[in-house]
Specification:
By secondary structure, the chain is α/β, with parallel strands linked by helices. Helices cover 49% and strands 14% of the residues. It contains 20 helices and 13 strands. A hairpin with a 5-residue loop joins strand 2 and strand 3.
């Protein structure tokens, strides 16, 4: 058999369902989720204790303008570094301890550090002190206490540094005064001693400079003070900084809406179904062969409209399908096709039956095989009582021994091989060389050989049978899950048999596409008495069955 492999490029990525339609479909759920989230945000915020924040600001003096910091070896070319250093000083232990004392010990130094945040400005010599407390007055007092404590610590540091500098300068002044006195004694004893006179004059100049330096440091220290040019004290806040129920309610509403929208889009991706006739093409990477309208919407009351109503729209759909499949088979020089689906209610059995009848009405030699040995849909649809099947052919029986002839009008007939149980491991039977030999012989027995097989996602039999066929025809019902089609495509990719295309069933009668949901469980499906009666009425007038010679015939009107 000719089974050329087909290679189709995988899509680069799965974009999922369209966002706007998915969100619109779930708009009420999204709205409800947003409202619930907003109410929860408001309620939880309202239950939290109130927290007030107050802020004090300190505009620092430029230390480069003060003589207190001269000759200290500190480089102040980067003013922002000085501000950052002062912020660390404001967060230091001595400042926290002083602030704790200023608030009367209401908070320990560690608690003050936890409740206070000090931030340096990037562009200004500014420190921002923010304090938090359960009351507005408490927050303002704490922020102002830290600001005052910082100034107290800085004043003490300036005073200590000033005293150290003055002590050193006074010591130098004493030494210079002693040097001057000794030089003057030398000059008095010898007026012509120019060296002593020069030493005296130099010491006098140095003494004048030191006296000026002492006076300047005292003045600079007094002017620098705490190193703060401006203090903006914290004011008592009128409203708590936290919680903010209305703000949190708005944020919770937005987050709830976003979360619900994301869930809706994800859910739409999980439950997306095919709605139009062309929707499966992208997932299956296969062409559309034909569209079969919904039996219910067209009010078709027979399982075999190709027999009961050959000129109806559904019958015309099957006639078109015969031509499309025949064209595909001609391209690969094949005869045997396998009909399967993703799930059990897509209409694959009805498609196989009506396709075989339409092909026979078209003058083609057809052989129909019920290879779904679990459900045996074709066998029960035609009410055949099999006396043999594929297993008998493998064991040596002839085709005439197992075949049942379904007679149609105009001397047309559809030979069918009914299904018989094959045991538990039916897939193993279809993988045997004997079955492949029988399948090759069957392909030579007719122009078109049609295998009705189990849904590919529910039984491994189909994959085994596919290796003995020339092409695969998929039946996709309106409402089939996109995920199921994706899984179906993944299994088809592991099979070398080419996919001829797909048949879109249960399409809306007005526009030949739509959707309907089907269950995914695969079980023994019993046709109702009404369905069997319809099939019997359809075949009683225009189609009659008889077993081929070689077995006891069981012709029934």
């Amino acid at each position: 058999m000719s089974q050329p492999a087909t290679a189709t490029a995988e899509p680069m990525f799965d974009t999922g369902p369209p966002v706007l339609p998915a969100l619109w479909a779930a708009r009420w759920s999204i709205l409800l989720s947003a409202v619930i989230a907003g109410l929860l945000g408001f309620g939880l915020s309202a239950l939290q204790p109130s927290s007030y924040q107050a802020t004090a600001e300190l505009l620092l003096a430029d230390p480069r303008n003060s003589g207190v910091f001269e000759d200290t070896g500190v480089n102040f070319l980067d003013p922002s570094r000085y501000v950052r250093n002062q912020a660390e000083l404001a967060r230091s232990g001595p400042v926290m301890a002083e602030a704790s004392a200023l608030v009367g010990g209401r908070f320990t130094p560690e608690q003050v550090a936890d409740r206070v945040d000090v931030r340096p400005s990037v562009d200004l010599d500014l420190l921002t002190i923010t304090a938090s407390d359960g009351t507005g007055a408490g927050a303002a007092d704490l922020a102002n206490a830290v600001a005052e404590a910082y100034q107290t610590v800085v004043r003490q540091q300036v005073a200590d540094r000033t005293e150290a500098s003055l002590t050193e300068l006074r010591g130098q002044r004493v030494q210079l005064e002693e040097t001057i006195a000794a030089a003057e004694e030398a000059v008095a004893a010898d007026p012509g001693d120019t060296a002593a006179a020069a030493q005296r004059d130099a010491a006098v100049d140095q003494l004048v400079s030191i006296n000026n330096r002492i006076d300047q440091i005292a003045v600079d220290a007094s002017l620098f003070g705490a190193g703060v040019d401006l203090v903006e004290e914290a004011e008592i806040p009128g409203a708590p900084a936290a919680p903010q129920p209305y703000r949190n309610a708005v944020l919770a509403t937005v987050l709830g809406a976003l979360a619900a929208a994301g869930w809706a889009w994800w859910r739409a991706d999980e439950t997306a179904t095919v709605d139009g006739r062309n929707d499966p093409a992208e997932v299956l990477r296969a062409p559309l062969l034909g569209v079969v309208p919904s039996y219910e919407e067209t009010r078709t009351d027979t399982a075999l409209p190709t027999v009961a109503s050959p000129t109806s729209g559904i019958s015309e759909a099957y006639q078109f399908l015969v031509s499309a499949i025949a064209h595909q088979l001609e391209e690969i020089d094949g005869r045997a096709i396998l009909i399967t689906s993703a799930g059990p209610t897509d209409g694959k059995t009805l498609t196989a039956a009506n396709l075989a009848i339409a092909a026979a009405q078209d003058g083609r030699e057809v052989l129909l095989l019920d290879a779904d040995t679990r459900v045996r849909g074709l066998t029960r649809l035609f009410e055949v009582e099999p006396r043999g099947g594929l297993a008998d052919l493998v064991q040596g029986d002839t085709l005439e021994d197992v075949i049942t002839i379904m007679h149609l009008e105009d001397r047309k007939a559809v030979p069918m091989i009914p299904a018989v149980p094959l045991g538990d491991d039916t897939a193993a039977f279809f993988r045997t060389p004997e079955f492949r030999r029988v399948a090759a012989d069957l392909s030579e027995a007719a122009d078109l050989v049609i295998y009705d097989t189990p849904p590919m996602l529910l039984a491994s039999d189909t994959a085994a049978i596919a290796s003995s066929c020339d092409g695969i025809v998929l039946v996709v019902a309106r409402g089939t899950s996109i995920q199921h089609l994706t899984q179906l495509r993944e299994r088809l990719d592991r099979i070398g048999t080419p996919v001829l295309g797909y048949v879109f069933t249960k399409a809306r009668a007005d526009r030949s596409y739509g959707y309907d949901y089907y269950g995914y469980g695969y079980r023994h499906l019993d046709f109702t008495e009404e369905e069997q009666a319809r099939a019997s009425r359809a075949t009683a007038g225009g189609a009659a069955r008889e077993e081929a010679p070689g077995r006891n015939r069981n012709a029934r009107a």
